[in-house]
């Protein structure tokens, strides 16, 4: 029996809806299950930056995003913020890879201090304690000293800090090219080969 490829995605209320939606779409192309948590603030930002209205009900969110990503039913699994029975809350059931994109500074602070007040924070805590792969895309400008200390603490705990800061050496033509660059780098770190961004030195 071949093990299913599973990944967890958290979307918080930091600016960066295009990154989150593009990443989600691509994750559904490469994973059998995408375990998703969206904060209340993220729903507001998604509506503001993408005009995509995210409902409150997890079941309705699944339907909305399955249609948006044009993926097979059953790939996207959405959990409410206090659904402590969700598999992502337990080290024995959670996927070993998780991305938070974008990651607000409030979320970063909670994870850095082990707060685990919400399912998203608990899921991140589980990945860290189980020595899995956690990737954070902080989206803030500028970073305060407090932000930097929290990010350093997470980096020292093995978390990959990957700011949503696209490169320009691939000569992007539009915003979509910049978003694809960031998604491509995330997929690279997840071990997924992709053609979303060109490696340095490759012109074709």
TrEMBL record:
Entry binding sites for dimethylallyl phosphate: 169, 185
Record's catalysed reaction(s): dimethylallyl phosphate + FMNH2 = prenylated FMNH2 + phosphate
Top-level division of the source organism's lineage: Bacteria
Keyword set includes Flavoprotein: yes
Keywords recorded for this protein, A-Z: Flavoprotein, FMN, Prenyltransferase, Transferase
Molecular-function annotations in GO: flavin prenyltransferase activity
Residue positions binding FMN: 13-15, 39, 139
Coiled-coil regions listed: none
Enzyme Commission code: 2.5.1.129
Residue ranges occupied by any Flavoprotein domain in the UniProt entry: 5-189
Function noted in UniProt: Flavin prenyltransferase that catalyzes the synthesis of the prenylated FMN cofactor (prenyl-FMN) for 4-hydroxy-3-polyprenylbenzoic acid decarboxylase UbiD. The prenyltransferase is metal-independent and links a dimethylallyl moiety from dimethylallyl monophosphate (DMAP) to the flavin N5 and C6 atoms of FMN.
Family to which this protein belongs: Belongs to the UbiX/PAD1 family.
NCBIfam families reported for this sequence: ubiX_pad (TIGR00421)
Official protein name in the record: Flavin prenyltransferase UbiX
Organism per entry: Aliikangiella marina
Gene name per UniProt: ubiX
């Amino acid at each position: 029996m071949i093990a299913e490829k599973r990944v967890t995605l958290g979307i918080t209320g930091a600016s960066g809806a295009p990154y989150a939606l593009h990443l989600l779409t691509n994750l559904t192309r490469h994973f059998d299950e995408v375990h998703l948590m969206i904060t209340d603030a993220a729903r507001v930002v998604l509506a503001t930056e993408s005009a995509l209205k995210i409902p409150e009900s997890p079941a309705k969110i699944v339907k909305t995003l399955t249609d948006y990503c044009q993926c097979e039913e059953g790939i996207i699994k959405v959990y409410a913020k206090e659904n402590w029975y969700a598999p992502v809350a337990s080290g024995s059931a959670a996927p070993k890879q998780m991305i938070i994109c974008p990651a607000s500074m409030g979320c970063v602070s909670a994870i850095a201090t082990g707060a685990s007040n919400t399912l998203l924070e608990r899921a991140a805590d589980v990945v860290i304690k189980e020595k899995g792969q956690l990737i954070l895309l902080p989206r803030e400008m500028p970073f305060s000293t407090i932000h930097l200390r929290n990010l350093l603490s997470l980096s020292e705990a093995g978390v990959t800090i990957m700011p949503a800061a696209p490169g320009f050496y691939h000569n992007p033509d539009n915003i979509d090219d910049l978003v694809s660059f960031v998604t491509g780098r995330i997929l690279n770190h997840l071990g997924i080969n992709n053609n979303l961004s060109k490696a340095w030195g490759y012109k074709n």
